[in-house]
Amino acid sequence: MGLLDGLTIKNYCDYNGIEYKQPSENEVNIKVCPHCGNSKWKVYINNYSNIGTCHVCKTVYNAYTFAREFTGYDKGKLAAHLKDVRREEKLLIPTYTDYRKAVREYKNLRLPIAKSIGIDIANPNYLKNRGITEHYSKMFDLRVCDSNSIYVCKGSDGEPYEQSYDGRILIPIKNIDGVIVSFQGRDYTGLAEKKYMFPSGVNSASTLLYNIDKAKGCPNVIINEGVFDVIATQIAIDKLAIPDLAVVGSFGKHFSKRTDRLEVSQIEHLNEMKRLGLKTATIMWDGEKDAYNDAIKAAETIHRKIGIKTRVAALPSGKDPNEVIPQDIWKAYLNAVKIDSTFDILKARSSNPY
User: Fold this and answer.
1) How far apart are alpha carbons 7 and 271 in whole angstroms?
2) CA distance 22 to 343
3) What are phi and psi of 121, to 5 degrees?
4) pLDDT in tens, 97-148
5) Residues of CATH 3.90.580.10 domain(s) within the chain?
6) Beta carbons of 323 and 354 less than 8 angstroms apart
7) First CA to last CA across the chain, in angstroms?
8) If you classify domain 9-91 with CATH, what class do you get?
9) Is 251 left (phi over 0), alpha (psi -120 to 50) or beta?
């Protein structure tokens, strides 16, 4: 069996946390070209042939050359990396159909050594500069990996290998019951090649909703994209004392649905939230034209799949929740447009505020 057998470029992006969108079922549009660094969504790769091009630097990619450019690995290390990607995808084959059984808990998940903020270490400047106080660092269980922060993974050959999280904010990711099922590490030094690092062999971010444990049972939820967007929105909710409103993060601008590769999907998480009382979901992604259109599509999917009311909110142009004041978030929420019918969708698309 070859290194790339069964692996699609979408799988590869999901595994590595690479930002992408899908203009169609068989095409993946990637934000950043790993060769020239252009971040204007100019890389298009076919999800079945795994062949595509950057329309800026004209680099032609297949899955192997894309992975080589993205990682910078030599031939031997790249081969091991691709085997690990394929190995994780195999772990996502479903074994249960019941939601509660399907939410794998990883109760024995051993996190890298990290210092608890407010207990072992002061709130770092990286978080302070984002407006995150010690109170919110504790609320979201953020931790600091400064040295010897190692996560031990099992490679494709069965042998353990190490991922270093030194110089990163460790962000635990919990399931709906508050059990840590995964994590990510955000570089705070500005020196790391990858801003975010994800553990190998653990639940992929595309199968999870960040902060879902705190949103359980709430009738209304805002859906942001990233971790720090979620924290900024939670700060706004608290400062303005808004009742019956929670926030979760989607880890990207699309929602995963059940496939033969996913044991549980983001749509199923939302469906469980519906069972526990969720009535309305408002998608609030970055203040950009493409993000707004993606939000409309995602809202349509949620409404069609689980039948709750959905809305799309528009932030100030060019801003994300972490870059605006609480009143801007509240205004965007109040003025969100509903996406509950074909007419709503067409109207929203034709009146894109960006």
Assistant:
1) 28
2) 23
3) -155, 150
4) 456 665 554 555 788 999 999 889 999 999 999 999 999 999 999 999 998 8
5) 9-91
6) no
7) 47
8) alpha beta
9) left
